[in-house]
């Protein structure tokens, strides 16, 4: 088939740019449009299956991207979302059923990410999720049934904008809940907790914690766009032998595409992590809390949402300068209050 790009006479860098439209690249939105995120979508089916597979391998002593095991009982508001169909009466069935995290924000309400509550474009049924409260080890804690699943009305699965959701429990939980932030924050120290993927590719059964820093959104935007730019260049280089692209034309095309990229983060997102990528949230941590400590009390500022890394690099977490992206809780406090009243 004749490529219309060449049929109409485009050559060199312009042809290379046009070709990227049919390649396996992140969607590069034009200025003024939303950039498509690189989320780990459909975690209910994906994370639990990966957990089960990893459970067959040798146990790991590594930690989640620079994190460590959380002290028992230190974060009573942290909950685990479990797939009901994976459970039997035994607590030992709980670890392989975990697929996302969440936080207890009121006796009967769990705050989490919308992408944890959507499978293939549809909100999941309440009975498909069981919430585990009061667990450090995933074989501990008390199970609660879910009576209501609330996905944000404007949740965007491509950009992960408005990635906030709620679960209502069938009865009040007795554990201590976490307060939401009083105001917006863009700098300082924070902590993220969860049972997500560790640096060595295994999942822990014990709750992990990592100390990270908050950054202005500009830091995430710059770092993530650099990752995407590298993907564009890598893809064009892989075609160089076939298309006879010169190094110069590849550089020109890469720069041209990069110049059209929109900012990946919206105002409803928050940037946090470490510049060197040494500590980060990862697959399975989604929906869990990012929080600061004010006068000895935890206050939730973010919800684990998504991350970026080179498309040939495996899990989209723990990469230098890419940081992690969280839902900005301050943006959604009114929405949360309205839904939980």
Topology:
Layout: H1 4-7, H2 12-19, H3 43-55, E1 68-69, E2 78-83, E3 98-106, E4 109-112, E5 118-119, E6 122-123, E7 129-133, E8 142-151, E9 165-169, E10 179-180, E11 188-194, E12 208-215, H4 217-243, H5 247-259, E13 269-273, E14 289-294, E15 297-307, E16 324-328, H6 333-340
Parallel strand pairs: 10-15
Antiparallel strand pairs: 1-12, 2-3, 2-7, 3-4, 4-9, 5-6, 7-8, 8-9, 11-12, 11-14, 12-13, 13-16, 14-15, 15-16
Helix pairs in contact: 2-5, 4-5
Task: Walk me through the structure.
The chain starts with a helix and ends with a helix. It has one domain (43-218, 265-340): Beta Barrel (Thrombin, subunit H), CATH 2.40.10. Strands 11-12-13-16-15-14 form a 6-stranded antiparallel β-barrel. The protein has a 6-stranded antiparallel beta barrel with strand order 2-3-4-9-8-7. It has helices spanning 4-7, 12-19, 43-55, 217-243, 247-259, 333-340, and strands at 68-69, 78-83, 98-106, 109-112, 118-119, 122-123, 129-133, 142-151, 165-169, 179-180, 188-194, 208-215, 269-273, 289-294, 297-307, 324-328. By secondary structure, it is α+β, with helices and mostly antiparallel strands. It is globular and about 65 Å long.
């Amino acid at each position: 088939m004749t490529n219309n790009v060449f049929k109409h006479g485009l050559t060199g860098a312009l042809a290379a740019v046009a070709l990227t439209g049919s390649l396996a690249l992140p969607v590069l939105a034009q200025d003024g449009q939303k950039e498509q995120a690189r989320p780990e979508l459909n975690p209910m089916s994906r994370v639990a299956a990966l957990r089960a597979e990893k459970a067959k391998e040798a146990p790991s002593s590594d930690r989640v991207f620079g994190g460590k095991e959380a002290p028992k009982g230190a974060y009573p508001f942290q909950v685990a979302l479990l797939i009901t169909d994976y459970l039997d009466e035994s607590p030992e069935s709980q670890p392989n059923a975990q697929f996302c995290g969440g936080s207890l924000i009121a006796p009967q309400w769990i705050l989490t990410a919308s992408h944890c509550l959507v499978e293939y474009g549809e909100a999941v049924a309440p009975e498909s999720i069981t919430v585990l409260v009061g667990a450090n080890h995933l074989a501990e804690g008390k199970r609660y049934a879910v009576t209501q699943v609330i996905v944000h009305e404007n949740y965007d699965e491509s950009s992960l904008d408005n990635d906030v959701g709620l679960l209502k429990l069938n009865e009040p939980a007795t554990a201590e809940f976490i307060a939401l932030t009083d105001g917006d924050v863009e700098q300082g120290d924070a902590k993220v907790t969860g049972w997500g993927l560790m640096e060595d590719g295994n999942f822990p059964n014990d709750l992990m914690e990592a100390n990270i820093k908050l950054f202005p959104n500009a830091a995430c935007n710059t770092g993530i766009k650099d990752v995407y730019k590298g993907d564009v260049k890598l893809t064009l280089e892989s075609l160089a032998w076939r298309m006879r692209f010169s190094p110069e034309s590849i550089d020109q095309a890469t720069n041209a595409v990069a110049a059209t990229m929109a900012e990946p983060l919206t105002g409803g997102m928050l940037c946090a992590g470490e510049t060197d990528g040494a500590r980060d949230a990862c697959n399975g941590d989604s929906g869990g809390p990012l929080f600061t400590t004010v006068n000895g009390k935890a206050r939730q500022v973010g919800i684990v949402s998504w991350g970026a890394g080179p498309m040939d690099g495996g899990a989209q977490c723990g990469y230098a300068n890419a940081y992690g992206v969280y839902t900005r809780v301050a943006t959604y406090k009114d929405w949360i209050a309205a839904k939980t009243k």
